[in-house]
Amino acid sequence: MTEVGPASGTVHWVGAGLSTGSGLAALCDTAARVRLWHRTEERAEGALAALGLAGRAEPRAFTLPALVAELAPGDIVVSMLPAPDHAPLLDACVGARAHFACSSYVSDAVLELVPAAGAAGLTVLTEAGLDPGIDHLFAHSLIARATEAIGPETAASYTLTSYCGGVPAVPNDFRYRFSWAPAGVLNALRSPARYIEDGAETTADRPWTATRPHAVDGESFEVYPNRDSVPFVAQYGLPPAWKPQTFVRGTLRLDGWLTAWAPVFAELAGDDDQRIAALARELAARYPTTDADRDRVVLAVSLDVHAGSGEAWSGRYLLDTVGTERESAMARLVSRPLALGVGHILDGSLPTGLSRAAETGERSQAWLGELERAGIDFSLRVGE
Questions:
Q1: pLDDT digits (tens, 9 = 90+) for 112-143
Q2: Looking at residue 7, what DSSP letter applies?
Q3: pLDDT digits (tens, 9 = 90+) for 306-320
Q4: 260 Cβ partners below 8 Å, 6+ apart?
C-alpha cells in the first residue's frame, strides 16, 4: 500500500450551504489554515461572520481554476457542493496531490478516480456526515457488539433498520421542514428503493408507497426505504453465516406525512420534469425556512439477531437533536463528523484510497467517542 502523503495543514472548505455549521469552526481550531470558498468573496465573508468565524478563515470566490491555483501538495479539499461536482474536485485534487473529503455517497465518477488518488498517496474520505456518516458508525458498532455476543460462525437471522430524517421541531401541517434543496428532496422520492424484507430483495419503484409506521421511544413516525440498501450488507461486513430477514436503510418523517404529501405524490407520479421543477420552487415559496424555525434530526439504528440455537441479541442507537438559534441540527450533524474525519486526514490516521467514515467496529467506536466529546448526544440501548 502506498504511504499516505503528509497533510500540509491547509483545509479548503468549498461551499457554505445549509449543511455548513460548527464543523467548520472545529477545523479552524485544528488546521493551520482554513479557506472558505463560496460563490463570491463577499458571500464567503458573510458566511464566516454568520458562523462567528470572521478573521479565522480566509474567504475566497470559488471557481475550479481559482481553487486549483491555490492547491498545494498535502492540502485537504472539503466539498460541500452537490454530488455531481465531487468528481471534478477530486480530479483536481489528484493533479495537485491534495486529499479530498465530502459527506456524500460515493458516485461511480468518484470511484473511477480512487485508484489514481490511492497511488498518489491521497486519502478520499466520503460518507462522513450524518446520513451517510453517523448512521454507518452506529451500524458498525452494533454489528461488532452482536458478533462478539453471538459469534460470527453461528447460524442466525437478523433485522437491521436505519432510519434518519430532518423534521420540524414544532410539527406543522405539511409535516416537514426543508433542510436541503426542495428539488433534491423531490427527485430523491422519484428514485426506486431496493431493500430486503421477509428474507428477499424487494424494490419500491415509488418509495413513498412503502411507507409504514415506526415507533421510536414511544413516539410514532413514518418511514420509507430509500436508495439501494442491499450493497450495505457487504459494506457493513455482516457475518456470512447470518442471513438478513430485514435490511432497510431509509428516511424518517413525522406521523401524518404520507397524508399531508398526497398532492405532492400525485405530481411526482406524473414524471413531468418541468412540472416537478416548478413544484420544487412552489414548495420552497410556500414553506420557507425562517430564522424562527427550529429543525429536529432523528436517527434511529437498530439490530436484532436471532441464532438457531435460541440465543438472541438486540441493540439500538438513537440520536435526537433540535437546532438552536445559532445553528441548525442538520448543519451541526453533517459538519461535525465531517470535520472529525478531516482531522484524521490531518493527523495521518486514515489510509490512502477510499474511506467511508469509519469502517470497522473498533474505529467506529473511537469516532463515536470523539463525537460525544464534541457535544453530539446519542444513546445506546442493548438487550431491551
A1: 999 999 999 999 999 999 999 999 999 999 99
A2: P
A3: 998 889 999 999 999
A4: 173, 174, 175, 176
Specify the 3-state DSSP secondary structure of 133.
strand
Polymer length of the chain = 384
Q: Measured on CA atoms in the order 174, 178, 184, 189, is the torsion positive or negative? A: negative
The residue among 71, 142, 135 whose CA lies nearest residue 105 is 135
- What global pTM score does this model have? 0.95
CA dist 81 and 62 (Å) reads 11
Nearest to 80 by CA among 118, 122, 44: 44
Contact 149, 122 (CB under 8 A): no
pLDDT digits (tens, 9 = 90+) for 334-378: 999 999 999 999 999 999 999 999 889 999 999 999 999 999 999
DSSP assigned state of 169: S
Cα 190 to Cα 264: distance, rounded to the nearest angstrom: 11
DSSP letters spanning 20-56 = --HHHHHHHHHSSEEEEEESSHHHHHHHHHHTT-TTT
The β-bridge partners of 13 are 36, 78
Catalytic choice (91, 131, 135, 304) = 131
Alpha-carbon span 22 to 206, nearest angstrom? 35
Coil, strand, or helix at residue 223? strand
- As a 3-state breakdown, the chain gives helix, strand, coil percent values, each rounded to 5, of 35, 30, 35
Which grid cell sits at 263?
Answer: 398532492
Look up 304 and say whether it is catalytic.
no
Closest CA to 2 of 165, 129, 98, 120: 120
d(CA 47, CA 53): 8
What does the alpha-carbon distance between residue 31 and residue 362 come to, in Å, rounded to a whole number?
25
Contacts of 56 (CB under 8 A, 6+ apart): 25, 28, 34, 48
Q: What is the DSSP code (8-state) at residue 199? A: T
- Compute CA distances 106 → 114, 124, 134, 331, whole Å: 10, 10, 16, 20
Helix (H, G, I), strand (E, B) or coil at 349: coil
